[in-house]
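Hey,
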Amino acid sequence: MISVIILGAGNVATHLFNAFDNSGTITVNQWFNRNIGSLQSYKNRVEITDDLSQLKEADLYIIAVSDDAVANLSVKLPFENRLVVHTSGTVNIHDLDKKNRRGVFYPLQTFSKSATLDFANVPICIEAIDKSDLKILKALSKAIGSKSHKVNTNQRKSLHLAAVFVNNFTNQLYRIAHEITEDEGVEFDILKPLIMETAIKVQELSPYMAQTGPAKRNDKKTIKKHLELLKNEQHKAIYELLTASIQKTHGVSTVPPIRSKKK
């Protein structure tokens, strides 16, 4: 059995608790949050606390709080020489207080409290100062059905940046598409098979090989019509920027914007 203590009550902390609690080989000794009210619904499943001085002993302590709060919380921990890890994609491992053994347990996935998540589909990026601690982090990943990947801090930061492009930015493009369909009274759901097929395609092809559309084809008439249809100036700018990016990637001459630029 691996014993853990979770610090924080956000989306990542909540999903990790549920995965640990259902694993059969991980014991959550305690769950800490400075606002204990956020944990009241779990008090019958795990011991909860808002007092750092009352933290019990465990094999590792998982700091799952906002990036800006990680370092400060690690300094406040009232013990030494125990394994403390954070779950951030961008925080340096050395930002953790060196009085304890330091590591990273970064689940590379999008988390929403209301969404069910299978950790078999969640790669875990792990890092540790001491090589012996990597074994614990690998075992923890395996216990919840995740595949672990040993990465350094710079690699993890690059993965997080890439994740923003494929997840957060892509979702914003979905939102723009939703606005476009709403404006004309068309169901956004009609686009969902296309969204799924696009995601499936990059499982088999590289994004470069999977690219299609008017920008790659240099279909100037279609591009012009699209820009004329777009009423939102910000949406036009995004369309032009992405079109130019695709054309540069695929060696196509860029199409100048049809609207006049403000001087």
